[in-house]
Specification:
By secondary structure, the protein is α/β, with parallel strands linked by helices. The protein has helices spanning about 5-60, 65-75, 350-355; strands at about 100-105, 110, 120-130, 135-140, 150, 150-160, 170, 180-185, 185-190, 195, 205-210, 215, 220, 225-230, 235-240, 270-275, 275-280, 280-285, 290-295, 295-300, 315, 320-325, 325-330, 335, 340-345, 365-370, 375-380, 385, 395-405, 410-425, 430-435, 445-450. The chain folds into two domains: about 10-165, no CATH class; about 245-435. It has three helices and 32 strands. α1 (about 5-60) runs antiparallel to α2 (about 65-75). The longest helix has about 55 residues, at about 5-60.
Length: about 450
């Protein structure tokens, strides 16, 4: 028979064993939950790294695209049994999931900003927390101790080298309505490029008609835009109230005329000319003409600079071949009409340095003087492009800082870029602006910083 003392001792052992087992199970549960939290944290870190890098690849192109890329990449990574979910944080709150900002590589500091000329980095915080899009992380054994969930998060910052992506077309006028105007049968294709409209007018950009074609990734307006006649613009991201963009060629020096060439005008005959100063401009009107210009800078003017002048550049027939050439329009205007065919390419950096002593003119096809406000008319019915061997190879940049460009012809045009005071496209000929036409290749090199 067991004594009362033996029975009490056994009961004490059972209680002690139960307490020890409870403690051991608690430690085991704590270890499992802790390991699960650590594993989830590692997954959140991988997702944050991937999302930050994806966003940084687009930061110089588009802030909206940067956020979208970060969200999409994060969702492909699982943490705690579900895809990592990020909120867009369009207001760019510094405590948000996706924060765009400037990373100072010297001071190693990150400052939230939406300034497109400054923002070079993306910070991503991947969370499984109370109040986050993904919610807190459920625990396995925590509920035994009254702890059902845990908050886990990790962050990453990726920075992109380089600078802001340049717009394919820029309308520089800062106040007038319709400073960027696509209407009627107008056809403008920027591929993955963007249009920048610096006008603060509520109708600084105008899209009018049902037959127009406007292809772009984005159109950014300092003011806003107006649509009339139900134009089809569903695929273009229209962004109003955006910062203005400075004239990218504002520092480009105007060429100084030298001794007039002999002959002092480029015409149908002779058929071969060299760079220099032509005070009576260029005028090719014979449909049978085939004129060749050698590489260099052609300074053209015509008429009287104090009043409307005859065209300084007049192509109404024939064919003009000018490879490695820049036209500087001192006064007078540019006219491309009729079935005149133009195969033009700008100077390379090496050619620009050779002929002018600087590479600043590389890529520029037409440069109209800053005090020359006469409208440029590109209204041809033939083709305006780069080399004849590659019809879709682009000609150079059209730069008319104080003048409007009218694109009203039925001929196709392939140019690298258009920068003008105002831009109007009403012609059915395809205007292909190729600067970003071959598809976005991502941003400059990107690196994880933190």
């Amino acid at each position: 028979m067991l004594s009362h003392r033996s029975t009490g001792r056994r009961g004490g052992v059972l209680v002690y064993t139960a307490v020890v087992m409870f403690v051991l199970i608690g430690f085991a549960g704590l270890a499992i939950d802790w390991g699960y939290m650590t594993w989830t944290a590692q997954k959140l870190q991988v997702g944050a790294d991937a999302a930050a890098l994806a966003g940084a690849q687009q930061i110089w192109w588009s802030h909206a695209d940067a956020r979208t890329a970060a969200i999409n990449l994060a969702s492909l990574n699982e943490a705690g049994g579900r895809g990592i979910a990020l909120s867009t944080n369009d207001e760019n709150n510094p405590t948000g999931d996706i924060v765009l900002g400037k990373y100072d590589l010297t001071a190693h500091t990150f400052t939230a900003t939406l300034d497109r000329s400054q923002a070079n980095a993306v910070e991503v915080v991947a969370r499984r927390t109370n109040g986050s899009t993904g919610g807190p992380l459920p625990l396995f054994f925590g509920p035994i101790f009254g702890k059902r969930n845990a908050d886990v998060w990790r962050y990453a910052i990726a920075v992109a080298l380089g600078g802001p992506a340049d717009a394919s077309v820029i309308a520089l006028n800062n106040k007038d309505p319709q400073s960027f105007y696509v209407a009627g049968n107008g056809y403008m294709d920027l591929g993955d490029g963007s249009a920048q409209v610096d006008s603060s007018s509520s109708s600084g950009a105008m899209f009018q008609g049902t037959s127009l074609t406007f292809v772009a990734n984005e159109a950014d307006m300092v003011g806003s835009w107006d649509e009339r006649g139900n134009p089809k613009l569903n695929s273009v991201s229209l962004q109003d109230q955006q910062p203005s963009v400075a004239d990218p060629y504002a520092g480009l020096a105007e060429p100084i005329p030298g001794t007039p060439m002999t002959p002092n005008q480029i015409t149908d005959s002779p058929s071969e000319y060299w760079p220099g100063y032509y005070p009576n401009g260029l005028s090719i009107v014979d449909s049978g003409s085939n004129v060749l210009l050698h590489p260099g800078v052609y300074i053209l003017e015509n008429g009287n600079p104090k009043k409307p002048s005859p065209p300084a550049f007049n192509m109404a027939g024939g064919k003009l071949t000018a490879y490695g050439v820049m036209f500087f329009i001192k006064f007078g205007n540019v006219e491309w009409n009729g079935n005149a065919q133009m195969n033009l390419t700008p100077m390379t950096a090496a050619q620009s340095t050779q002929f002018t002593g600087t590479d600043a003119y590389a890529g520029i096809q037409f440069f109209q003087a800053r005090d020359n406000t006469q409208q440029a008319d590109f209204n041809g019915t033939s083709v305006y492009t780069g080399t004849s061997a590659d019809v879709q190879g682009a000609s150079g940049i059209l730069y008319f800082p104080a003048a409007k460009i009218l694109l009203d012809g039925t001929g196709d045009m392939y140019v690298d870029r258009i920068v003008a005071d105002k831009i109007e496209d009403t012609g059915s000929g395809r205007k292909i602006v190729t600067r970003h036409y071959n598809g976005r290749q991502g941003g400059d090199p990107v690196y994880l910083i933190e």
